[in-house]
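Hi support team,

I've been running sequence recovery on a batch of backbones for a student project. Most finish fine, but this one hangs at about 90% for roughly twenty minutes before it completes. I'm not sure whether the input is malformed or the queue is just slow. I've pasted the structure tokens below so you can try to reproduce it. Let me know if you need the job ID as well.

Thanks,
M.K.
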């Protein structure tokens, strides 16, 4: 794979490239400071990675790829932030939502705050994996459905193989 430095937004501060071939990349900055700030990807298949230092790395995604970013932070009194965002990387001309640590941003499919909701979504991701489906390949509509049902205080429907097959067929219709 050939990385390039032009044709997209400005390079990140860490010097990560902004595109892969002619595709603009979405960069996710991950910081790990044990017990203070812990960011990790629950799922996702990055096309490039840049290690900034021992605690910081940048993972890059091509347009259309889906990933889940978990962010946790604490201070002397306990947890101060627990978030989980499921994001689809976007192309140059697509609209996007700005999300902390994601440059330039992405299509926000699901966003939850608070450890109880984060734990609930992590369990749903585990259920998708238990059904022999890669969460990266699950229908974006499913993650929107989960977001909306949790926001309304209702239980989300399970992601069943029948729904995944329908998504794969629908995806073939659009290039």
């Amino acid at each position: 794979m050939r990385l390039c430095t032009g044709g997209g937004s400005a390079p990140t501060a860490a010097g990560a490239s902004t595109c892969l071939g002619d595709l603009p990349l979405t960069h996710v900055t991950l910081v790990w400071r044990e017990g203070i700030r812990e960011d990790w990807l629950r799922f996702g298949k990055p096309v490039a990675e840049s290690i900034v230092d021992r605690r910081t790395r940048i993972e890059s995604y091509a347009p259309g790829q889906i990933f889940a970013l978990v962010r946790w932070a604490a201070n002397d009194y306990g947890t101060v932030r627990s978030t989980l965002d499921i994001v689809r990387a976007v192309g140059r001309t697509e609209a996007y939502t700005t999300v902390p640590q994601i440059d330039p941003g992405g299509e926000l499919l699901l966003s939850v705050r608070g450890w109880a909701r984060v734990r609930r979504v992590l369990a749903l991701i585990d259920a998708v994996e238990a059904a022999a489906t890669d969460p990266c390949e699950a229908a974006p509509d499913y993650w929107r459905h989960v977001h909306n049902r949790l926001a309304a205080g209702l239980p989300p429907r399970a992601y069943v193989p029948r729904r995944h097959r329908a998504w794969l067929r629908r995806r073939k219709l659009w290039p």
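--
Follow-up from support: It reproduced on our side and the slowdown came from queue contention, not your input. The radius of gyration is 17 Å. No action needed from you.
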